[in-house]
Design goal:
By secondary structure, this protein is an alpha/beta fold. It folds into two domains: 31 residues; 123 residues, Beta-carbonic Anhydrase, Chain A (3-Layer(aba) Sandwich). Helices cover 37% and strands 15% of the residues. The protein has a five-stranded mixed beta sheet, sandwiched between helices. It starts with a helix and ends in an 8-residue tail after the last strand. Its EC number is 4.2.1.1.
């Protein structure tokens, strides 16, 4: 039997055991809120583990205050992809009124080369011959798996993509920030109140 399967099963069972106790003791009650963000915010940020609680605490966000979208690097790679769709749903269906895109210093997507990721995939047993048919179908695998040169540049590019989106109202502020994953200090790169939609 594969050790990864054993570890996953053990981890899952640990989670499920904790969850049963959590529900039985009604510990969920302190987190109850509505589906609408109290502070009218939708935030795109990185999936970095250091930000799970730090981001919220550094911004005085409680459960229910903001819609949080996470991915590797807080990247919007396509104007009609799932990230932009989630932002638009938050605005039009869930009463969000402002958008914050928050990258972080020391992001693993900074300088990420597709060759490194592909080599790691190969080491995990992925047959890299699958790339050729993907590229034949028009998928630029190397671009898809590449990171960015600087977190600041990425945040500014993502803010620009959101601001230029044809379905975004001109009066929605789109802010760009960078957070320190060590201290929680925020730096504003784009103040959405002072910059209008392009």
């Amino acid at each position: 039997m594969n050790w990864r399967v054993i570890l996953l099963t053990t981890t899952l069972e640990t989670i499920m055991t904790f969850n049963r106790t959590f529900v039985e003791k009604k510990q969920y009650e302190e987190y109850q809120t509505t589906k609408f963000p109290n502070k009218k915010l939708v935030i795109l940020t990185c999936m970095d583990t250091r930000l799970v609680e730090l981001l919220h605490r550094s911004m005085d966000l409680k459960n229910g205050d903001a819609k949080i979208i996470r991915n590797a690097g807080a990247v919007i790679s396509h104007p009609f992809g799932s990230i932009m769709r989630s932002i638009l749903v938050a605005l039009y269906q869930l009463q969000a009124e402002e958008i914050l895109i928050i990258g972080h210093h020391g992001c693993g997507m900074t300088g990420l080369e597709s060759a490194t990721l592909l080599e790691n995939a190969k080491d995990r047993g992925v047959d890299l011959d699958v790339i050729e048919p993907l590229e034949y179908a028009g998928v630029d695998v190397k671009k898809f798996l590449s990171g960015f040169s600087s977190v600041e540049e990425n945040v500014i590019n993502s803010v620009d993509m959101v601001k230029r989106h044809p379905l975004l109202p001109a009066n929605v502020p789109v802010h760009g920030l960078v957070i320190s994953p060590e201290t929680g200090e925020l730096d504003v790169l784009v103040n959405g109140y002072t910059e209008s939609k392009v």
